[in-house]
Amino acid sequence: MIPEKQFNIGKILISNSLFLAPMDGFTDHPFRIISKKLGAGVIFSEFINGLDIVNKHPFLEQKIFFTEFERPFAYQIFDDSPERILFAAQFLAERNPDFIDINFGCSAKNVANRGAGAGLLLQPQKISRIISLLVKNLSIPISAKIRLGWDDASLNYLEVSKIIEEEGAAMISVHGRTKKQGYSGSANWKAIEEIKSARNIPIIANGDVNSKDDIQRISSATNCDGVMIGRGAIQNPWIFQRKNIEDVTYQERHTLFSDHFNSILEFYGQKTGMVLFRKHLKSYIKLDHLSRSERIQLFHPLDKIHFLDQVEFYMRSQISSQQA
Ligand SMILES: Cc1cc2nc3c(=O)[nH]c(=O)nc-3n(C[C@H](O)[C@H](O)[C@H](O)COP(=O)(O)O)c2cc1C
After folding, report:
1. Where are the domains of the chain?
2. Separation of 62 CA from ligand 1 center, angstroms?
3. Is the pLDDT of residue 201 over 60?
4. pTM, 2 dp
5. Which of 130, 220, 263, 321 is 20 to 30 A from 91 (CA-CA)?
6. What atom of ligand 1 comes closest to residue 209's alpha carbon?
7. Which atom of ligand 1 has the smallest separation from the CA of 177?
8. What is the pLDDT of residue 65?
């Protein structure tokens, strides 16, 4: 096993280098808490739209809530306007996060096509302006999350990472795909290694880490300072304990499920919580092992007791067939 690397984001010492990736719609406060309990080192908020801060979006407070337990904790912002990103960052800095991350990687059409997220990879000068504005005006570290470029014909990760470093950012996380790739194909770990070799600030490797062996493999392949896990953590939150899903017992699954379910209901209220929890079901049961009618039943608004009985039944039967 490769020894855990220690490094700094600004003055913050990072001694656990497994990062929970920012994931819109998933890495809310309850999911971050369970990830942290299982051993995630560094935690990001879901991305926060600068426009939502300016316009005081009604769900903003829920989105930006975090607790001391989540530290080291970063807010992630996306937007296309450097001035609005600065406004958002100054607003969020008042909540005292450990650092602020800027999204230069989101490939969703409604983000990238408006010139935010990965859309900014087409405008390196704007990236330069955003990072320099933030570094000059905030006293906490600024980091960035990038992709490799817009498409294969415009791979500019070395240029972009250089700009981000030179403007004073404290760390870069790299998802080893282009905007055009979306989530298709596989992440290019070699390109992440090139960035790591060329830069002096900490580089975090991201993309396609789905098992405990992948953590080792991406660390060796990229030599990065940390490893960021996204979809692998939704499928298997125990990955932060360096455990594969096959090795998670029924009891462990049941305990985490109850904890997660109750905290979602507490955080959002029972009605909304019951709806929102559905998307986390795949952390606990294999939905593709259920029949269509079983799935429909599970996603149909059931009362809480009935829902819990059903999930427990599927968890138990899936574990026993796995062990048989
Ligand atoms: C549902 C979902 C939501 C995401 N939301 C964000 C986000 O808010 N900010 C961000 O930088 N990346 C976001 N991403 C990208 C992930 O952070 C990560 O870079 C990507 O999933 C690749 O890592 P993985 O292979 O470990 O999943 C999202 C990904 C998914 C699947």
Report:
1. 7-243, 249-323
2. 20
3. yes
4. 0.96
5. 263
6. 26
7. 22
8. 98
Separation CA 107–CA 281 (nearest Å): 25
Q: Which DSSP string corresponds to 254-284? A: HHHHHHHHHHHHHHH-HHHHHHHHGGGGGGT
Separation of alpha carbons 3 and 80, rounded Å:
39
Distance, in Å, from the CA atom of 2 to the CA atom of 120, rounded to the nearest integer, reads 35
Mean residue pLDDT of the chain comes to 95
Q: How many CB atoms lie within 10 A of CB 255?
A: 11
174 within 8 A of 206, measured Cβ to Cβ: yes
CB 240 within 8 A of CB 252: no
Q: Which of 175, 177, 224, 235 to mutate to test the pocket of ligand 1 (most atoms within 8 A of CB)?
A: 175
Band (pLDDT 50/70/90 cuts) for residue 183 is: very high
pLDDT at 320: 76
The DSSP secondary-structure symbol of 207 reads: S
Binding pocket residue ranges, ligand 1, CB within 6 Å: 21-26, 46-47, 76, 103, 105-106, 145, 175, 206-209, 229-232
CATH 3.40.50.720, applies to 7-243: no
Q: Tell me which residue of 228, 203, 196, 199 sits closest to 215, measured CA to CA.
A: 228
- For residue 21, report the distance from its CA to the centre of ligand 1, in Å: 6
Active site residues: 106
Percent with pLDDT over 70 in the chain:
98
Contacts of 310-315 with CB under 8 Å at 24 or more apart are 311/257, 311/281, 311/284, 311/285, 312/254, 314/285, 314/290, 315/250, 315/253, 315/254, 315/257, 315/284, 315/285
